[in-house]
Amino acid sequence: MKICMLVHNNGTRDGRVMREAETLQAAGHAVTVVGVPESSAEQSVERLQSGVVVLRVFWRHGWRRYLLMSGIPRGLVFLAGWTAVIYGFYRFGTWLAYEMIGALSGGAGVAWTLALLGALAVFLVGWGVSALSSRLSRDAQEREIARRRMIAADAKIAGPFPAIRSRIPQWVPDWALEIGLEPFAWFGAGGAKFSLYRYRSRKLAAAAATLKPDIIHCHDCIALPTGYRVKQMLGIPLIYDAHEIYEAVSARRLGATDYFARIHTQLLSRIDGFIAVNDSAARYYRLAYPDAPAAVVIRNATKHILLENYDGRLHRAAGVPPEKKILLYQGGFTKDRGLPTLVRSAVLLPADWCVVMMGAGFLADDLRAMANGVDAIRFLPPVPPQELLSWTQGATAGIVPYEDTVLNHWIATPNKLWEYPNAGVPMIVQPFPEMRRIVETYGCGWVLREEFSAAAIARLVASLSDSMIADARDGCRRFIAEDNWNQTYAPRLLELYRKLAQQAAAGRKPAPLCVRA
Which of 213, 255, 318, 488 has CA atoms 20 to 30 A from the CA of 85? Predict the structure, then answer.
């Protein structure tokens, strides 16, 4: 079977995409990953050792001309529309002011009347905005609490699920979003570039369609419209692989998270196969989008790899003696991952411990500045994926310090949850349901029971004895032996494809397949 995977990155930097593609290729399918060039991988065609082909579409050719030609009329309509709105408010305000002046003063004391009206208006607007903001904040908090309770519950809970819905009305067409919202981005606002997304999507869909695949498999929400376009063009089954809960990935920002929620509302009922990253995410999607197929749970598990003895590379690169215990963070240096707190914890650790942060990201300079002059912390660049476990095994413990700022972090199961144990490294995690369940079930680490802080991290590390660390290493071996890619999740992926291919061959609409972790 010819399979086309769609991603809006270079394809090879996403371990989840590569694991799935290589598993399908090894099972006898012909897999092509269609992505976009990035600075780390710009070849138009890359043939991997596994047989997977990565095709990168140089979609930026002509996009500036497209945006200019389409942006000029959109800008004119935008300016005309908002000029009309502002002028209308101006005329209404002028009329209202003079009517009230006439009624209150009969034409006398106009200046004082205008001043009093202005002050009253400022007070009322300020009070109204404050009251509305407070009410919206309370309502949002109540919905989040209800959302988490219903996701975590094993039994059915009565009442509607408070799904995260788009604040963009569904009846508004995409071209209207380009006209009404995108011009704000020209002035520095954080709105999504709708026309850019649509242009890139068309280019990727055209490239994918030329491959004539039997199944289209799109990764991440931004690729779902692209995959659906190919499904319409070729009449083939569409699999959607949701790596996260996208409408809950960050603080809600008009144009980004609302755009993701809009895509889900429009398209989740039209997909043929659905993959979620864990049970909590699958439950969210089932409750929030009941018309979507039930999701197959495929977690971010790694292959079970037997490593050679540690060769000291992590300690040498960090410049610390071999007997030094290392608390390791590996991954992206991005916000809401608790990294500033982790940096502050370094000076509070016992003298025989240090923090090593291995990765990259836009927070790197800020974190280094925070750690300036602190000898108990080291920064290392990211290493090639195929070498990662050989570096990781030098740590005494790993940490996943994500902050409880968004629902997506609360249900998170990042690659690190398998990378640390695969290297025999116990982990420290936040008390979020998916991470806590793994650590407590297998005894492969420790849960931060206190409120998240630098002092709490330091106290937990100081409490770890050599025997506790040895027991947790045994838990790591048990966990990775039972919950790994080859044994647990690769069969689920192959079964999903087998079922979809069988139903497509029979000319039937694919039935949902549900598998829990």
Answer: 255
CA distance 148 to 360: 31
Tens of pLDDT along 264-314?
A: 999 999 999 999 999 999 999 999 999 999 999 999 999 999 899 999 999
DSSP 345-372: HGGGS-TTEEEEEEEE-TTHHHHHHHTT
- b/e sequence 472-486, b meaning 16+ C-beta within 10 Å: bbebbeebbeebbbe
Strands 397-400 and 30-35: unpaired
Residues 6+ apart with CB under 8 A from 444: 421, 426, 427, 438, 472, 475, 476, 478, 479
The rounded distance, in Å, linking the Cα atoms of 271 and 219 is 13
The greatest distance separating any two alpha carbons of the chain, rounded to the nearest whole angstrom, comes to 93
CA-closest candidate to residue 257, choices 275, 244, 270: 244
Q: Give the separation between CA 190 and CA 70, rounded to whole angstroms.
A: 20
SS3 338: coil
State how far the alpha carbon of 321 is from the alpha carbons of 353, 399, 477, 494, in Å.
11, 21, 26, 46
Q: Taking a C-beta distance cutoff of 8 angstroms, is the pair 406, 336 a contact?
A: yes
Cα R_g (the chain), whole angstroms? 27
**Mean pLDDT: which of 112-121, 181-190, 473-482, 504-513 is highest?**
473-482
Closest CA to 148 of 517, 434, 439, 416: 434
- How much is the pTM? 0.84
User: Phi/psi of residue 303, each to 5°?
Assistant: -70, 150
Q: Terminus-to-terminus CA distance in the chain, angstroms?
A: 27
- Supply the DSSP string of 273-292, one letter for each residue: EEEESSHHHHHHHHHH-TTS
CA distance 167 to 190: 15
